[in-house]
Amino acid sequence: MGISFTVLSSGSTGNATVVRNEDTTLLIDAGLSAKRIDELLKERDLSGEELDGILVTHEHSDHVKGLGAMARKYNLPVYANEKTWFAISNAVGQIADENRRILETGATREFESLRVESFGISHDAAEPVGYSFYDGAEKLSVATDLGYVSDKVKQAISDADVLVLEANHDVEMLRMGRYPWNIKRRILSDIGHLSNEMAGAILSELLTGRTKRTYLAHLSRDHNMMELAKLTVRGAMEDRGCFYKDSEFRLCDTYYDRPTPWDKVSES
Question: Distance between CA atoms of 243 and 232, rounded to whole angstroms?
Fold first, then answer.
């Protein structure tokens, strides 16, 4: 079966992704209400009873809004590093002690035949992380909420067959937008969010022939558009000498209001 995934929702209004293989189904973040997550799961022919656990990237509300409710409703183990657990303790309500699992940054955990690696990222949170998933030779990496991409992050997500990567904003749209300057400065900082241009620059370094698809994620509804994101990312790659055919590599959409279709990592 290999790895399959669907991005249930992506953006500042809420984030959740499902990754599964033949014997494990995991939810990455629960940044919408439990009711809404259940609705999105149903759209992809899943239910909360089929989940084996929840992985948390960081404590911001658009990643943990429904975490406590989902964990309690379905008696799910929740995996996060210690600093993130401390940061979310007052926001998610009571979670059973046996379901409070520690997955430290940089650690690897086996979920049957699905291996998960955590890696640290740069964002204004207690100890934010991304995740890479392995099943045999297959690799899926998920990295959003990045102020910048460090060498360690590049190493963690390199050679992924499929990558879910942040392309949060168009810089000029953000600069001209309605946000106060202090918020704009935070978004543009090294602990903020990755712009379209920066996402393209990173992909130009990572595209070695193995990565077949990249899902552009966590797009700002105020300061970005998917077609603009794809155009800018591709332009930034070409500016750096990285040219490709659509048959070799594709940029894919994510949505804030509906899930992506199921995708198989091994799909050519």
Answer: 14
Instruction: List the structure tokens of 126.
Output: 């207690």
Architecture of domain 4-264: 4-Layer Sandwich (3.60)
pTM over 0.70, yes/no: yes
Would you kindly state where each structural domain of the chain is located, as residue ranges?
A: 4-264
pLDDT by position in tens, the chain (length 268): 799 999 999 999 999 999 999 999 999 999 999 999 999 999 999 999 999 999 999 999 999 999 999 999 999 999 999 999 999 988 999 999 999 999 999 999 999 999 999 999 999 999 999 999 999 999 999 999 999 999 999 999 999 999 999 999 999 999 999 999 999 999 999 999 999 999 999 999 999 889 999 999 999 999 999 999 999 999 999 999 998 888 889 999 999 999 999 999 997 5
